[in-house]
Amino acid sequence: MTNNVLWLVIGLTALSMVAGCTGSRSGDASSRLDDAIGLFIAGEYDVAAPDFVRLTGELSDDEQLQTAYLYLGRSYLELGEYSRALEAFSNGQLIGGGVQFDAYIAEAQSHLGTTSRLLRALDSVNRQQLSEMVRELFLSDRDGLPDDAPEAVVEAGLMENLPDGEFHAQTPVTRASFFFVMQRCAAQAVNGDTAMSRAYPQGFRSALAAGDTWIGGEEAYLALAALKDRAGR
Hints:
The chain contains twelve helices and no strands. By secondary structure, the protein is mainly α. It starts with a helix and ends with a helix.
């Protein structure tokens, strides 16, 4: 009985220590968020930005995480790194909290220029962004399609909804899924088969050869543009 009580005390003590450490880390991150915001206010954007990057991987509270992304994007804006700013604002907006990103996203986009240019600047693209590329390159001369890019590409047969019947615009695009979008675009082109053979000499295996799971904006846009040119669409 004494041993059981002893082990119970030890167990409770261990749990208390773990909880204390977790709380301490969370509190420490919150404190460092305040410090990083102070650096931003002081105009030390190049010092603040790396702190915000680290905090986006440590904060668990959605509002604080959004705040970190907001000030990370604002730091990049001040440093003239507009594609990074856009990515930070977009990531913060995806969390879905109360922090407003629309005005800052518009500012970053205004620096980047055209739609295709800002999409190409992204390190990875989601299904919404890919649908905008596909519409711009393959559907700009087609009448009668919906204004909404996802609806347009689905109706045109160039992309499809996911198995649950929803488009899931914010889902990141893998190299594998991008390959199948390329196939659909090629299937509607005059010389699509030849163009796909040049783009992916080893077929599906070529799509995975780069190693990264996600497709980047520049790579996706250039691949689609090359397909369009080679296919004679």
